[in-house]
Structure formats: structure tokens, C-alpha cells
Amino acid sequence: MAAPVPMYRSLLVRLLAASCLIAGCAIAATAWLATSTATSALAYQQGQSLQADGEIVERLSGYAADHGSWTGVAPLLDQLSAQYRMRIALVGDGGSVISDSTKQSASLPPTATATIDPLSFDTSTTPGAQRPGIDPRVVGPYLLTAQESSALRQLADHEVSCLTSNGAQAQAVELPTGRYTVQSNASDQAVAGCGGLGARVSAPTATEAGPAPASVAFVPTATEAKPLADLAAAAAACLTRQGVTVKFDLTVTPGFQLRSRQTEVLEQGGQCLQAARIDQLRPYVAPPAQLYLGIGTTAREHFDLTGQNRAKIIWTAALVLAITLAVTTLVGLRLVRPLRALIHTARQDPADFARAPVTTRDETGYLAMAFNQQTERRQQMDAQRKAMVADIAHELRSPLTNIRGWLEVTRDGLVEPTPDLITSLHDEAVLLQHIIDDLQDLASADAGTLRVHPQPIPVLALLRRIVVAHRAQASDLGVEVVVQAEPGLEIHADPERIRQVLGNLVSNALRHTPRGGHVTLTAIADPEAVEISVVDTGTGISEADLPYIFDRFWRAEKSRSRSTGGSGLGLAIARHLVQAHSGTIRAESAIGVGTNMTVRLPSQTPEYRRV
Questions:
Q1: What integer pLDDT is reported at residue 523 of this predicted model?
Q2: How many helices and strands (H and E) does the chain possess?
């Protein structure tokens, strides 16, 4: 039997190593992808989220600047929630929910995202509509009539035409109050020469944020006169309470910033002016509200990968797949190559007894070795089969030749059919029948149809019957047969088959024991079995021949003389019969000392089998 495969050469270990390598590459690639892709994607999504938050704040602040309450804000919240895929909730100063984009019950986070108040700057918001001060979209009592706005538009268009004709770039911009201002890159002198409505500004970019560009002072319209006077009075009262007395002369600027011609007073009383403006505009805007984003079941739960990250995933997956295919192909070829060689060998002509090359020391190599050993056994069996056919022909040829020869000479009248001749012919026929019966027993054993019919048998009585059956042969050979067995021993066996086994052993012992020798039949028992031994004082069997005595047609006497041996099938049949009784048979011998043939049979009722 081949030695066990070392673990480091085992196919299992190699396959596990290949799998670990592939898994390691996949894990490393996955970790790298997860880290790099998630980092960039989260950064991108964070930017998108901040932008979305700023846009939501801008939209809600615009709504608050244009409405005196939050009564109709629900449709806007639903629209923003569907657009940005998040829950949006507004909560008043008292903690009551003003409006919520989702109808499901969900707790609010501990802090709000922003405070929506167009009249106050919120430091938690991103740059957008809410700038330091007041949202420029808050109009309040300063909304011009259509006639006033149209008149100002005509003045603005006239100034744009004037500036354009002088080679400057200019455009009219409408303010939330209905006023118009002119933005231009012209000098202050050119602006003043064209009417003075505009202001010289640098060309701003589309993303530039900050206060509206400064402009020259405007003359208030009839609509703006009263609220301006009220604002000036409120600011003056505030300064008076601080010990400052001044008369305000306020004008309207393009950014809806109010300024006084007494700049030094405004520097001291700017807070009063700002507070007065907030008090004046408060009735026209919605009350302050806390904004909560991304809570509840409609919160964002995923992020979208960029095209660059998708390409990175595709190329990494392709690389891992290529490594997997390469490693699998390499390992597979090394594993399949010896198997293909084994298949090629197996397809050769069976008569050639081809051997497979052994190129590895793993399971495949041991499979090739086992295949070669099987081929060797098959070759040996083929040789034994051929030898058996020759032996059978030889065994049958001799008696048949004798019978045919004597019958022919008797038919021709050359020999008289005397009783001695008839007896000789009868003996030859009996020999043929004996050989045929032995061959039939061997064929039954090979086919698995050799049956036994066990029953309790007293051992001592069995041995005595064997001695009686061979007494005449022993007397003719001058050999004494002795029985030594304990009374009461019993075996479970087929009487006819066991007598056949023991009779064969005794007959062989008598033929190989010289005159004056003796053959002893002994029986001893142990808790599990009974051993019956046939011991002779004959010539013995050499150590080299001892392993082959149970082979078919084997004889120690190579000349195949009838005087020293039978057909060569007796011991082979005896072994099959003993095995059918779930027993064993063994031989011990020494040249010049004798031979001990021992049959071991179970003392309890065994499970008999067909052989």
C-alpha cells in the first residue's frame, strides 16, 4: 500500500492555497475599492448634501420673505422632499411642528439644521440667500406700484442706452421692490453723465456671492416715502434713548440697504437702524422656524457613484477576474496533466499492460501508482489464468490418454479386457471425476454460489471419522494417525464441507510423511474459536514455497508426479471452504521437520457467507 500523501503535497492543500490567494486578492481589491470609492463618493455626496441643504434653506427663506405666515408651506415642503429625497420638517419656537413632509411619526434629531428667518443671519447655514443682515427678498411696505416701477424702468433703459453708446457694458436689473438699477463697468463720471441711476461694478461671475453692488442714492417714490419716514423716526428714537439726537434723511439703495447722508451718525447708530428695520419688516415675513433635514423614513440611504468610481470598480473587477482565471488555469493544468496521462494509458490495448507515468507525489501520483499496481496484478492474473488453462489441460490429458489408449488396444484385440484393466480404467475415470468436481467447487467459489449448511458438530467425533476414512491409506503408507482432542468441543459448520477440508489436509499429510512417521489431529478451544490442526512429521515445505501452497495447481514437486501430489486444487478449495465458514486456515512448516496446517473456526454461530 502506498504511503499517505504529505500534507504539503496534497491536492486539497494546493486547492486551498489557490482559493486563499484568489480570496486574498479579491478581499484586498474590495477593501481598496470600498475605501477609495466610498471616500470619494461620500465626499462628493457630502458636497451634494451641503448644496442641497443650502438650496432648501434658500427656498424656504424666500417663502418666508414673501409670506406673512407658514400656513401654505406644505406643498413646498412636499416638492423639496421629493426633489432631494429627504424628510423636511419646520418647527416653531415653541416646539410645535409647523409642517412635515412625511406623515409618519418620527422623532426629531437633537439639533436643527438651520433657523429659517429672513430678518436674521444664521451662522449654521451655508452661504446663500441668508446673508449678514436682512434677506434682500424681504419687501415689506416698500413694494412699488406698477406705475412707479414702469417709470423707473424707463429711466434705467435710458441710462443703459446712454452707457452702451459710450462703449460701456450695462444692463438694467430689477430689484424685489420693483425698483431698477443699472449695473455697468463704466466710470462714475460716465454713470453720472447718463442719469446717475447705475453704479460702476466689476464683472461678477455666476457663482460669486456677497452683498449687492453699491449704487448711488435714489430719490424715494411716493410708496417708499411713508415707510422711510417711519423707519427714520424709529431709528432716531433708538438713538435718543442712547443719548444721541439726530435727524435722519434716508434713501433707498439697490440692495435695499438704507443709508443716511450723515455717515458718522450711522457708524454710531447702525444697530439702531438695523433693529428698526427688523421691527418694521417683521409683520410682513413668516415667524422664525427651526429646519430639520434628513430624518425619518425618507432620509437619504444611499449615494450615487460617479463615473470615475464606476470605471474604477469595473477595472478592478476585471483585474481580479484575470488573476482568478490565471491562477485557476495554472493550478488546473498542473492537476489535469497527470490525469490526462492516466486516461491516455487507460485507453491503451489491455493486452499491452501499459503503465501510467508517475510525475507527482500527491493524490494524482498515488492514483497513477495504484493504477500501475492494478495493472501488475492484472498481468499476474492473466499469467495465472494462462497457467491454469495449461494445468487443467495437463491434468485432464493424462487420464484421458490412458483411457483412450487402453480402449483402442482392447478394441483392436491386442489386449484382453481383464479385471485388472477394467479396474485401471475405472481409477482413471474416478480421477477425472475428482478433477472435474474440484474445478466445479472452485467455479462456485469464484461465482459466489458456494453454499454451506452449518449445524452443531462434535469435534472429537468428526476427527475420529476422518481417521477411519483414511485408515486404509495410512496403513498402506506405514503412517500412524493419532487424535488428540478435548471431549465436549463443538463447532458450527457444514459436516460434508468440513470433512472435505480436513480429509484433504490429512491426505496431503499422509502422502508427504515417510513410512514410520505419524500424523496428529488436535483440537483446542478459546473463548471465540476452535482450532483444528493437522500436524505431520513429513518432509516439510520450504520457506520460499510456503506463500504459494494455497494457489491453484501449485505443487512443490514441479514434475507433477502423481506419486507426490494430486491435482493441485485441494488446498485452494480448502481455503475457500474455510472462508465460507468465516474461518481462517494457515500453514507452518520446516524442511525435515514437518508441516502444521491449522483451521480456525468460530465456536459461536457465525454469519456464513457465500464465496
A1: 92
A2: 13, 16
Judge contact between 155 and 174, C-beta under 8 A: no
Distance CA 525, CA 602 (A): 10
Rounded Cα distance between 182 and 194, Å, is 11
Of 590, 582, 584, whose CA–CA distance to 607 is shortest?
Answer: 582
Confidence label for 596 from pLDDT (cuts 50, 70 and 90): very high
Instruction: Please choose, from the candidates 372, 356, 353, 354, the residue with its C-alpha nearest in 3D space to the C-alpha of residue 2.
Output: 372
Max intra-chain CA distance, the chain: 179
8 A C-beta contact, residue 519 and residue 536: yes
Residue type, 85: R
DSSP 8-state symbol, 218: B
Place of cell 444697530: 271
Q: How far apart are CA 77 and CA 83, in angstroms?
A: 10
Residue 202 identity: S
The kind and range of the H/E element at 483 are strand 480-485
Q: Report the C-alpha gap between 180 and 165 in whole angstroms.
A: 20
* pLDDT band at residue 536 under the 50/70/90 scheme: very high
- DSSP codes, 317-343: HHHHHHHHHHHHHHHHHHHHHHHHHHH
Q: Using N-to-C axis directions, what is the helix angle for 419-447 and 570-580, rounded to 10°? A: 40
Q: Cell numbers at residue 480, please?
A: 500412524
Cβ neighbours of residue 116 closer than 8 Å, sequence gap 6 or more: 57, 60, 61, 64, 90, 122, 286, 288, 289, 290, 291
Q: What angle do CA 277, 279, 280 make, to 5 degrees?
A: 60
What was the pLDDT predicted at 195? 66
Residue 15, phi then psi, degrees to nearest 5: -65, -40
Contact 506, 581 (CB under 8 A): no
- Gap between the Cα atoms of 165 and 157, Å rounded: 12
Tell me how many degrees the CA angle 371-374-379 measures, rounded to the nearest 5.
125
Under the banding of pLDDT at 50, 70 and 90, the label for residue 10 is low
**φ, ψ (nearest 5 deg) of residue 291:** -105, 130
Q: Nearest to residue 180, comparing CAs of 221, 208, 225?
A: 221
Burial 115-144 (b: 16+ CB within 10 A, else e): bbbbbeebeebeebbbbebbbbbbbbbbeb
Alpha-carbon distance 459 to 463, whole Å? 6
CB 12 within 8 A of CB 335: no
> Which residue type occupies 499?
R
Strands 97-100 and 198-200: unpaired
The residue whose grid cell reads 480448502 is: 574
pTM as predicted:
0.42
Residues 6 or more apart in contact with residue 16 via CB below 8 angstroms: none
User: Please, where are the H alpha helices in 188-221?
Assistant: 188-193
CATH of 450-602, one of 3.30.300.20, 3.30.565.10, 3.40.50.170, 1.10.10.10: 3.30.565.10
Nearest CA among 482, 595, 484 for reference residue 537: 595
Neighbours of 605 (CB within 10 A): 12
**Closest by alpha carbon to 494, among 360, 416, 609?**
609
**Domains in the chain: boundaries:** 11-133+288-298, 140-282, 450-602
Crossing angle of helices 495-511 and 459-469, in 10° steps, is 50
pLDDT at 107 over 90: no
**Angle 11-66/307-346 helices, nearest 10 degrees?**
160
